[in-house]
Amino acid sequence: MFGASSDDALAPEGEFDPSTEPTPGEFLDGHDVLTGDAHVAFHDTTRALFEERGVYDMTFGYNLADLNRDTRHSSAGYRYAEAADDPDVLLAEFTPTTPFCPQSDTLTRGSFRAWNGLADRHGYDLVRVRVSPMHQRSADINDALADMEAEFRETGELPDGDASPGEASAPPTRDETTSTDAPF
Predict the structure, then answer these.
(1) How many CB atoms lie within 10 A of CB 127?
(2) How far apart are CA 90 and CA 108, in angstroms?
(3) Rounded to the nearest 5 degrees, what angle is found at the Cα of 27, between the Cα atoms of 68 and 77?
């Protein structure tokens, strides 16, 4: 498939094919994992929300929801489950294409903001988001996502997606940066 366009590698929309879906991970253990029509319905809504909110995988140049359909990465994408103790809460676990995917933090934060910013469109009061533990920074990313979730539950407002509470800082000004003689 080398050289094929992203569109050439996408399985058809509107189908649930376990061979092109990531295996549900530990975040979804003990919960009602969506399969079949339930998975397809939520994922179709996800595609529309991600389109509106610009949740795009820049590596592949497509809406992040299409990662689930990308036959080149059949173990990557999102899986969903309704929380066992609260059917108004959905859990979403993101499995990136590699354990070192540099976009995992940005993509999961963007996903959280898209789902919870437009909750009236999917029927859940809250969508909890985590990255698979296979990612090398999963603990840090998941801690930041848990902080976003806690702030959202407490205030009902979406927290700033750029930094964890208390960690926001402006980039250094030109005068504050260390100068080098390097041309770049």
Answers:
(1) 23
(2) 14
(3) 10
Question: Each residue of 134-183: pLDDT tens digit?
Answer: 999 999 999 999 999 999 999 999 987 554 333 333 333 334 444 444 33
Give residue 163's identity as a one-letter amino acid code.
A
Residue 59 burial (CB count, 10 A): 14
From CA 66, how far away is CA 47, in angstroms rounded? 7
Residue 81, token pair as written in the block: 């489950």
Distance from C-alpha of 122 to C-alpha of 61, rounded to nearest angstrom = 25
Question: pTM of the full predicted structure?
Answer: 0.82
How distant, in Å, are the alpha carbons of 27, 125, 153 from that of 104? 16, 24, 23
Six token digits for residue 120: 């009236």
Looking up tokens 């376990």 gives: 18
